[in-house]
Amino acid sequence: MKYTVESDIGLKRSINEDRAAFFRREDGVQLALVADGMGGHNAGDVASTMATVEARKLFYEAHAEHFETPSTKKAWLLQTVRKLNQALYQHAKENPDCSGMGTTLILVLVNESRCLIAHVGDSRVYHFSAGTGEQITKDHSYVNALIDSGEISEEEAVHHPTKNVILRALGTDPSVEPDIYSMTLTPTSFVLVCSDGLSNKLSIKEMATIIYDKQTTLQEKGQQLVKRANDGGGEDNISLVLLMKEGES
C-alpha cells in the first residue's frame, strides 16, 4: 500500500490530542492507526500517544504466525486492544493528572488485499473503490445509539447536542472489546482512516471528490481533506491515514 499521514491541530484547539501513524514490517504486514485522545489537561494527548507507541511496539515484536490467517490476525488485534486498554487504564489510576483519560482507536491491519479492522470509539474507516465510497465502521456514540433505536434520523444526528458523546473508549474502563471488521481491497481501493475532526466536516461525497481527483498525488489528497475540514470551521483536531493500492496514480 501507498500511504500518507496527516495530523493537524485545527483552528480552535490549543493542543493536538490526535495521533495518526502507519507501520510496515519486514514481512510486508502493515498497520494503520488513528487515535483521538480525550481527558482534562494534557491527558488526551497522553492517552493517544501511549496507544500509538505501545501499538507500534506490539506490532513489530509480534511473531509472523500472528498474521498468517484471518483467525490469528483477529486474535492478535483483540489481544492488542486489550493490552493497550489495560496499560492506559493502569496509567490513569496511578497518575491523578490523567484520571479519566481515554482515546478512540482504529487499527487497520493490511496484508496483501485483505484488511482487518479493530475499532473503539467514533474515529472511522471508509472504503472508496470504483468511484463510490462507504463508511465501514459504526460509531460507538450516543447519537448512533439513538439512530439505531429509531429515536432520531441520520440527518438529525448531524447537529444533535450530544453528538460528541462516545459510549466506548480505550483506557476509561478496566476492559473494552473492539468491533472487528473485515474488508477486501480492489485494484482501485482507497482506505481512509480518520478522526471525527474530519468526518464531522466532510460528507462521503465530499471526501470522494477529493480522493478521486486524478490531478493530485496521494499526499495532496490528504492535505486537501485537512484543508476542507479547516475551511469548515476546524473546531477539532484533524487526523487521517489515507491508503491506496500500489500501482494506482
TrEMBL record:
GO MF, any single term: metal ion binding
Q: Known EC number(s)?
A: 3.1.3.16
Q: Which Pfam families match?
A: PP2C_2
Is Hydrolase found in the keyword set?
A: yes
Reactions catalysed: O-phospho-L-threonyl-[protein] + H2O = L-threonyl-[protein] + phosphate; O-phospho-L-seryl-[protein] + H2O = L-seryl-[protein] + phosphate
**InterPro entries cross-referenced by the UniProt entry:** PP2C, PPM-type-like_dom_sf, PPM-type_phosphatase-like_dom
Cofactor(s) listed in the protein's UniProt record = Mn(2+)
Q: Could you tell me the keywords of this UniProt record? A: Hydrolase, Manganese, Metal-binding, Protein phosphatase
The name of this protein is protein-serine/threonine phosphatase
The source organism is Lysinibacillus alkalisoli
